[in-house]
Amino acid sequence: MAGNSFGNLFRISTFGESHGVGIGVVIDGCPPNIVFDEVFLQHELSRRRPGQSNIVTQRKEADEVTVLSGVFNGHTTGTPIALLIYNQNQRSGDYDHNVQTYRPSHADFTYDQKYGIRDYRGGGRSSARETAARVAAGAVAKMLLAQHNISITAYVSQVGNLRLEQHYSQLDFANIEQNPVRCPDPIMAQKMEDLIREVRKQGDTIGGVVTAVITGVPAGLGEPVFDKLHAQLGKAMLSINAVKGFEYGSGFDGVHLRGSEHNDLFYFDEHLQRIATRTNHSGGIQGGISNGMDIYFKVAFKPVATIMQPQETVDSAGNAAIITGKGRHDPCVLPRAVPIVEAMAALVIADFWLMR
Amino acid sequence: MAGNSFGNLFRISTFGESHGVGIGVVIDGCPPNIVFDEVFLQHELSRRRPGQSNIVTQRKEADEVTVLSGVFNGHTTGTPIALLIYNQNQRSGDYDHNVQTYRPSHADFTYDQKYGIRDYRGGGRSSARETAARVAAGAVAKMLLAQHNISITAYVSQVGNLRLEQHYSQLDFANIEQNPVRCPDPIMAQKMEDLIREVRKQGDTIGGVVTAVITGVPAGLGEPVFDKLHAQLGKAMLSINAVKGFEYGSGFDGVHLRGSEHNDLFYFDEHLQRIATRTNHSGGIQGGISNGMDIYFKVAFKPVATIMQPQETVDSAGNAAIITGKGRHDPCVLPRAVPIVEAMAALVIADFWLMR
Amino acid sequence: MAGNSFGNLFRISTFGESHGVGIGVVIDGCPPNIVFDEVFLQHELSRRRPGQSNIVTQRKEADEVTVLSGVFNGHTTGTPIALLIYNQNQRSGDYDHNVQTYRPSHADFTYDQKYGIRDYRGGGRSSARETAARVAAGAVAKMLLAQHNISITAYVSQVGNLRLEQHYSQLDFANIEQNPVRCPDPIMAQKMEDLIREVRKQGDTIGGVVTAVITGVPAGLGEPVFDKLHAQLGKAMLSINAVKGFEYGSGFDGVHLRGSEHNDLFYFDEHLQRIATRTNHSGGIQGGISNGMDIYFKVAFKPVATIMQPQETVDSAGNAAIITGKGRHDPCVLPRAVPIVEAMAALVIADFWLMR
Amino acid sequence: MAGNSFGNLFRISTFGESHGVGIGVVIDGCPPNIVFDEVFLQHELSRRRPGQSNIVTQRKEADEVTVLSGVFNGHTTGTPIALLIYNQNQRSGDYDHNVQTYRPSHADFTYDQKYGIRDYRGGGRSSARETAARVAAGAVAKMLLAQHNISITAYVSQVGNLRLEQHYSQLDFANIEQNPVRCPDPIMAQKMEDLIREVRKQGDTIGGVVTAVITGVPAGLGEPVFDKLHAQLGKAMLSINAVKGFEYGSGFDGVHLRGSEHNDLFYFDEHLQRIATRTNHSGGIQGGISNGMDIYFKVAFKPVATIMQPQETVDSAGNAAIITGKGRHDPCVLPRAVPIVEAMAALVIADFWLMR
C-alpha cells in the first residue's frame, strides 16, 4: 500500500477516482519563486482531456483545475502545491453492469483480489482518469525545467503496424500538435488517423508507441546504482496505464549491433565547446547519468481493454458471463498519451535536477 | 545522491567498487526465521562470477561471501543481514591507461562530470562487479520466496540476431544450466556459443535478451498507481548495467494486436479451482497488480562497451586519444546476466510480498 | 524540501496555508473496508477548531471537511483518501502589518531565509491552522485502530506552574471533555481556566504540558534501531507547532532513579494470562518495541508567540520596529493541542500496526 | 521491518550485533571530494569504546574500523562509504544464562515477541554496541560539516541528582575531554565521578542528561511541516539506547514562562551584520527551520538496565526466575553517550545541509 507517490525531492502524491468527487495531486518540494503559469497548466490538461478530437474518447470532462495551495502572488512558495480537478460525471449508473462482472484485461479482478472491495464506477482508481493528476503535476515540473532550458517533446511514432521510421532529428516537431494523432509526419499522421477510424468502426482498439526526446539536460543527472536516470524514467513510463514496454537509446534494437558499432565515440565539439559523442546509442545516459546529449526513449502502449464487442468473462463468483463495452469508446490512447509521457518525464527530470 | 538502496520493506543497500577492498550489501527487512542457506547463496554467486566458462570474462574472482550479521543458529533474525565479498584483485595497475582517458560508452565521463572525481580502477562503482552484491541479496530474497513456492527462472533468449522463437512454456528449463550460454534450447545454445566465440576472436562484443518467468505469485501483489508491479520490475531491470529495454507480457509486440485479440478472457479454471485467463498477454499483471498467472518479461542488454579494438576518444581535457581495451574481455554478458535478472526480480517480488 | 509527508505504510501528505483556499491531506495506505465515520471525523475537527470555548482563540473557522476520494459506499477502498477543509477567512487584509516585519518567535524570519518568499497572510504554511489536516488524518487512523481496540487519550496535565501531580491511572478520563481546558481533574481544570483567563486579560500567553496514554497496543510494534516506536512518537510530537520537548515513560525524571529502582520486573500476570511488568517506567516500550503495557508520554508546549503587547523586532531590511498582535489572541493552545497530540499518536501507531 | 536506515540525502544503514562477526554502516549520499580523515574517525570511536576509563564498562573492544569502500586517494568519491568494525568478543558462552530468561528493562522480551527469535548473545542487535556504527557514520558527517564551519559539542550536564546549573555559554568546553565524565565543570565532574564510583560499588547504575550545542548552522535548515529540524533531532536522539526524553531551547522549563518572556526579540546585530535574537529560548530553530543562532538541546538517559544485583523476572515460558548481571557492568552510560549524541546530531545536520 501507499504507492500513490512518485519522486523524492520533487514529490507528488495523487488521489481520486473516476466518478468520485474529483482527482488531484499534492506536489511537495517544488522550489519557491517559480512563476506559476495557470494558463499553461490548463493547456496541458486540455491536451490530455477526453473529447478533444473525434478519434479519442468522447466522454465529456472539462478538466478545470483549482489551485488549492502553494502559490502566492503568482509564484510558488516552496510549500505543497495542491491541485484539484472536479469530476463532471459523478454518476455511477452507467456502470451497473460491471458490478459483478470482470472486464477482460482491466484491473477489476486484481483490485478485487487485492483490496477485497471494488469501486465499479468506471474503474475507480484504476481508471486512466487518474493520469489527469499526473499531467497537472507534470505541467508544474515543466515550469521549473523551462527556467533551465530543459525541454521535453513526445509524439506518436507508431499505431498498430504503422511505424514512423525516421529518426527524431529528421522530424519537424512543430507538426505534432497540428493533427489529432500527434504524429510529426503529416502523411503518416493521416494514415494513422484513418486506421484509428477504421478500428473505431469495428468497435475495436489499437495500440502503438510514443517516442520522447528531452533536450537541454546537463551532464550529471541520475543516481547510480539503482536510481539510474533511465531506470527512474522507465518506472515512470511503466506506471502509466496500458504501457507494456520501455526502451531508451538503442533499446531492443541495440542487440543487433556489435560493441564496435554501438559504442559512442567521444570527441571535443568545437561548436558546443564541450565533450560530446559522435553517435548517441546511449540515449544521452551512460552509467545511469546524463552525459549532456539528447535523452530519448520509446514507450509501448497496448490496445485499450474496453472494446465495443461482446467478450467472454466471469463474474466475481466465477460464473461465465458476456460483457460488451458501452459508453466511452477510446479506440486509441496514443494521442492522449503524449502529454502523459511528457508529464512523467518532466517529473523524473525535475526530481533529479533538485538532487544534482 | 543516495541511490544505492532498492526496495521498501525488503530493502537493500549495496556498496563497493571494482578493485576496492570488497563489495557487499546490507539487507534490511528480511523476515526472521528464514532458513539461511549459505551453500545456495554461494552457488548463486558462482553463476554470476567471472571465469565460470570460456565464453565469459576470464578475470579471476572467487566471490566468496562472508555473512557479517543478521543470521543466528542458521536462521535469519529479522535484523539487518550484511554480506561482504572481498575483491581478490585490488591492484589498480591494470588501469593506469584510463586515468586520463574516457572509455567510450562507459561511465567514466559521466562519473567525472557528476562527482568531480573518478575512480579509474576498473570503473570503480560503475563496474558490473557491483552486481555481485545484487546476486547475493537476491539469493536471500529467493530463500524467502521459496518458502511460499514462488520461483524465478531466467534464460538467454537472444544473442545478436540469434533469437529463440519458442514461447517459454515450450522450453525445458532443466537445460538452462547445461550449457555456458544459459539458453534452454540446446541447438540454439550451441549456435549462440559459436557466435560469441566468433565475436570474441574479433575482439568485439555482442548483446542480447534475457527472458524471465516468475511462477507462483498469488493475485494481489503490486501497489498502484506508481509502484505497479511491472513498473518496479522495470526499474529493477533497467538499473542493471548495460540494460537498454524492458517489456512484459505482450510488450512492444502487443502494439500489433487489436484490443479484441489482446484482451485476456477470464474463465473459471476447474483444475486450479480459481479464476484464470485463457491467454496471458497481460504477463500476469493487470492494473499493476499480479493476477495469479505467470509473470514474464524480457530485458535487452547492449553489447559490452569494453572491446579489444582501438577506438577514438578524448581525455578529460578534451584532447583526442586512442584507447584499446586490455585484460578482461567479456564478449557477451548475457550468460552472467541471467542470475542478475533473477536476483533483481526476486528482490522486487519479496518487497511486494511483505507489503501484501 | 518535501517535508510534508509523514509515515511509511500509513502515509499522509498535507497541504494548505492559513488564508489560502483551504487545507487538506492525502492519506495513502489506509487499508480497505474500514467503516468510514464522517460524523466522528467532523467531531474530531470540532475539538481542534478555534472558537470552541472562550479560553481559546475566537477566530471563526467551521472546519467542515469534504471527502474527495478513497471512500465508497461508506467504506475505505484502499486507495488514497483526500480530505479538504476550505478556509472561511481568505482575506489577507488583517495581516498587512506583517508584510515587512518579523513577528518574534514566529517562523516569519526563517521562512523568508529559507524560501526567499514569505506568505504573510497569518503565517501561511507555518500557521497552526495546518494542524487541522493532521487531526483529520488522525481521525481516520483512529477508525483503523478502533477496530483493533487500540485507544488514545490525551489531556492537559500542566498549564504554566499548575501541574497535575496524579498518575494517569488515578484520573477519570471521562472528565476530560467536560471542561474547556481538557484536564481530567475538575478542580485543577478550574484553576487552569482561571489562570488562562488572567493571562488573556494581560494580552499574554502561557504554555503547558499534554500527557497522552495509548492502551491496547500489542507487544511487537516498533522498528529498531532507528524507527523505534518512541523515536517516531517523539518526532511526531515535536513536529507540532510550539512543541519544545517530549518524554516517555519515566522521562527526564527517570534520571533520579537507580537502575535497581527503574527496572520494570517481569512477572506472569494470571489475570491477563501473559507476561507483564510490575512497574512501567519503560512507558510500554523496551528496545524501541511495544511490550504490551500502556504507552504514555508527555509533550511540552511553549506559550503562543502572538501576544497583544507591543514587542521590539526588525523588518526584513533589519530596521528596528515595534509590533503588537491583533485579531486572534490565543492565550493558551493546550486545550486545542489535545486532539492534535492524539491525532499524531494515532498516525504513528497506525503506521507501525501495518508494518507488524 | 527495515528500520535500520536514517536520513534521506545523507543516509546511513547500520548492521551488526553484539558478539556477531562485526558491526558496521553504509553511508550513502556523502558528497565527493571530502578529505577523509581516518585518524579522526578512529579517535571518535575511541571516545565511545568500552574500557576507556574506570567508570565505564571494562569490556574490551578495540573498535578498529576498516574502510571497505567509497574512499579513493584519501577523499570520498560520492559512492557509498562502508565501514566495518570487527567484534573482538564473539563468544556467546558468557550469555548462556540469558537464553531462557528475560532481563528486566532490556529488549529481550520485546525482540522475542516481535521476531519470534532472540539473539541471546549480549542482546544481539539491541545491544548498545550498535551505537559504534553511529559514531563511525557521525564522524564522516562531521568531516563534511567541518568544511562549512559547523561544530557540534556535547557534554554530561547531569548524573542522578547532580545537575550542572550553568548555561552552556558559561562553560569552558575545553574541559570536557579532560575528565572521564565529560562534564565541562571540573568540580562537578569530580562529584559526578565520585557518585558513579559509589553506584558501581553497589552493583547499581545511574542515569543523567547530555546537553549538546551546535554552532555555525546558517539560517534555513529544516523541512516543515513534519521534518522540522528539531523533530528530526528529537527522533535521532530518542533512537539512541536508553534515551527517555528530548527537549530543545527552553524545553520543558519553557512552560513556566509567559509569551512575553519567552519570545526571542529580533534585532540587527552590527557585529555579525545580520538579524539575530536577543534571547534564544527558541534554541536556534523557529517554525522547524534554523534561524542562525546556536542550536542546543538536552537528552535524558535512564540508568542502564544491567545491574549486578539479583532481580525477579520470568523465563520465556512465564516461570518466575531470578537473574543477576555478570561480566560487563556499566554503572553510567553518560560519558560514552556524549560522542553518540554528537554523532546523531551530525547526521541530522548533514542531511539537512544537503537538502538546503
Structure, explained:
4 copies of one chain form a homotetramer. With 356 residues, chain A is of the alpha+beta class. Chain A has one domain (5-249, 284-355): Chorismate synthase, AroC fold (4-Layer Sandwich), CATH 3.60.150.10. In chain A, 24% of the residues lie in helices and 23% in strands. In chain A, the strands form 6 sheets. A 5-stranded antiparallel beta sheet of chain A has the order 1-2-3-7-4, covered by helices on one side. A 5-stranded antiparallel beta sheet of chain A has the order 9-8-10-16-11. In chain A, helix 5 runs antiparallel to helix 7 (334-355). The longest helix of chain A has 22 residues, at 334-355. Chain A starts with a strand and ends with a helix. The mean pLDDT of chain A is 94. Chains in contact: A-B, A-C, A-D, B-C, B-D, C-D. Chains A and B meet through strand 1, helix 2, helix 5, strand 11 and helix 6 of A and strand 1, helix 2, helix 5, strand 11 and helix 6 of B. Strand 11 of chain C pairs antiparallel with strand 11 of chain D, so a sheet runs across the interface.
Briefly characterize the structure.
The structure is a homotetramer of 356-residue chains. The first copy, chain A, has 356 residues and is of the alpha+beta class. Chain A is built from seven helices and 18 strands.
Give a topology summary:
Four copies of one chain form a homotetramer.
Chain A: E1 5-6, E2 11-16, E3 22-28, H1 38-48, E4 65-67, E5 71-72, E6 75-76, E7 81-86, H2 108-115, H3 131-146, E8 151-159, E9 162-163, H4 186-201, E10 208-215, H5 229-238, E11 243-248, H6 259-262, E12 266-269, E13 274-277, E14 285-286, E15 289-290, E16 295-301, E17 310-314, E18 320-324, H7 334-355
Antiparallel strand pairs in A: 1-2, 2-3, 3-7, 4-7, 5-6, 8-9, 8-10, 10-16, 11-16, 12-13, 14-15, 17-18
Helix pairs in contact in A: 1-3, 1-7, 3-7, 5-7
